[in-house]
Write a structure and sequence with these properties.
- The protein is mainly beta.
- The protein has one domain.
- It has one helix and eight strands, in the order βββββββαβ.
- It has one helix at about 90-95; strands at about 5-10, 15, 25, 30-40, 50-55, 60-70, 75-80, 100-105.
- It has a six-stranded mixed sheet, with no helix packed on it.
- About 15% of the residues are buried.
């Protein structure tokens, strides 16, 4: 039976070159999560890979870290991390600018 879950995605930090030739800018994502509600056929388990998408047509894989029932939201929250250890500036922009991914600061 399909189930709506909340994906809580951690993206790797990255370095972006300055357009004007200045010092590269560091984007630290350790204190930020990207969330999205999706419908899945079953509740994923730790270690499974999920294919996610952004508005721009970008698709990417993320690894499930853990899945927990969140009583106050009445939904399963699936903690995931970007499958690769690094992310390109284009991929980062596609996810962070996507209307269906919400940026949530942890602090």
């Amino acid at each position: 039976m399909p189930q709506i879950v909340e994906i809580n995605l951690r993206l790797p930090s990255l370095r972006v070159k300055d357009e004007h030739g200045g010092e590269p800018k560091n984007i630290n994502n350790s204190d930020v999560r990207f969330t999205k509600h999706v419908e899945l056929d079953s509740i994923p388990k730790a270690g499974e890979l999920l294919t996610m998408s952004a508005d721009s047509g970008l698709t990417f894989s993320c690894e499930v870290i853990q899945t927990n029932w969140h009583e106050s939201k009445n939904i399963f929250v699936v903690a995931c991390r970007f499958e690769r250890r690094s992310i390109s500036p284009g991929e980062y922009q596609a996810i962070s600018n996507s209307a269906d991914w919400l940026t949530k600061p942890l602090l």
